[in-house]
Amino acid sequence: MLVHAYGAHAGDKPLEPLRITRREPGPHDVQIAIAYCGVCHSDIHQVRAEWAGTLFPCVPGHEIVGRVAAVGAHVSRYRVGDLVGVGCIVDSCQHCHECEEGLENYCDGMIGTYNSPTPDEPGHTLGGYSQQIVVHERYVLRVRHPEAQLAAVAPLLCAGITTYSPLRHWNAGPGKKVGVVGIGGLGHMGIKLAHAMGAHVVAFTTSESKREAATALGADEVVVSRNAQEMAAHAKSFDLILNTVAMPHDLDAFLALLKRDGTMTLVGAPATPHPSPNVFNLITKRRSIAGSMIGGIPETQEMLDFCAEHGIVADIEMIRAGEINEAYERMLKGDVKYRFVMDISTLGA
Ligand code: NAP
Ligand code: ZN
Hints:
Protein name: Zinc-binding dehydrogenase
CATH architecture of the largest domain: Alpha-Beta Complex
Bound molecules: NADP nicotinamide-adenine-dinucleotide phosphate, zinc ion
Low-confidence stretches: none
Keywords: Metal-binding, Oxidoreductase, Zinc
Shape: globular
Distance between the termini: 18 Å
Cofactor: Zn(2+)
GO molecular function: alcohol dehydrogenase (NADP+) activity; zinc ion binding
Organism: Bordetella genomosp. 9
C-alpha cells in the first residue's frame, strides 16, 4: 500500500513530503495506523548523515504510537483497534543468545525501525514519520495509558526505554544518588523515571533557563554544569550518572563527581568522539564509564506499564509534519520542552 510520509533524499537536503510503500501484513504482522511520532535527536543524526551509512530516501521516526488497523492470520496478541506502540526495533534474528534473553537491542541482526536492511521497498526500513507501518507482532508494544495521553506516550518508545534500561541495570532506587546530564528528550525522561524509582536525582544542564523546570520534572537538585563551583559541591558523591548529551564534551567534569565504584553511563551518541578522559579520574576511585543502547522488547513493555501505573508521560510540543525542519533547528539550540511529537494526521494534508 502507498502511504504519505516525510523524509529526505540527501543529508544536506531538508525533509519533504514523500510517498512510500508498505508491505501487506504477513501472517505474523500487525499493520498500525500511526497517530503520533516523537522526534528523537537520533533522527537528526541519521537523516543528516552525521552517523555513517545513511540510506536515502530516509524517513526517520522511532517513537511510534497508533491503532492496529489490520492483523495477519497468525497474530494472537493484538486485535484491530488496539492502542499500540513501536520503538527503535522492528525485527532481529530471533534465535541468538540476546534475542532469547529478550535483549533484541543487542542482537547483531537487529533491524532498526529506519535505515536497516529489509526485503521491503526500497531495500531499507522507513520510520514513523508516515501514516502506516507494518511490523512483526513480537516487536509491537501494548499501550495501557488512557487514549487522551497517546501523543505524550510516543516519546517513551525511545527516550523512555533508553533511560529506563540503564537506570534499572545500574540499580537506581532509594538510597542512590543519580545524576542526569542534558535535559532534552532523553534527559527529561531520565529525571522523571529515576525520581519514580525513588533515587535522589540531580539534573545537570547547560541552560540556566531550565533550572526551575528541572525541579518540576522531579529533580531534587539542579546544577548548571558551566558553573565550576556548583559542580565542585557534588564531588565524589554519585552512584550513577546518566549522560544524554548529543555533542562531544569534557567527560572529566562529570567523572570527578562519581564516588568510589560509581558509573557514568553514556547514552548520548554524538557524531564525533568525546575528548579522551583523564585516566586518573578513573583509577583513583575505580570508576567506570559505560554505555547502553535503548532496551529489549520485554523491558520496553515493562517500562510502558511502569509509566502507565505511575502516570508518567513525556512533556511534549506537538508539531505539524511541515514544521519538522524548523523543529530540528530548535532542538539543536536546546529549545524544546522537552520532546517534539509529530501529529501524523497532518501528513498528506
Ligand atoms: P535532545 O533532546 O537534543 O537533548 C540533548 C540535550 O543535551 C540538550 O537538550 C542539552 O540539554 C544538552 N546539550 C546539547 N548540547 C550540549 C553541549 N554542547 N554541551 C552540553 N550539553 C549539551 O536529544 P535527545 O533526543 O535527548 O538525544 C540525546 C542523544 O542521545 C543523541 O545523541 C541521540 O542520538 C542519543 N540517543 C541514544 C540512544 C541510545 O540508545 N543510546 C537512544 C536515543 C537517543 P541542556 O540544555 O539541559 O544542557
Ligand atoms: Zn531515539
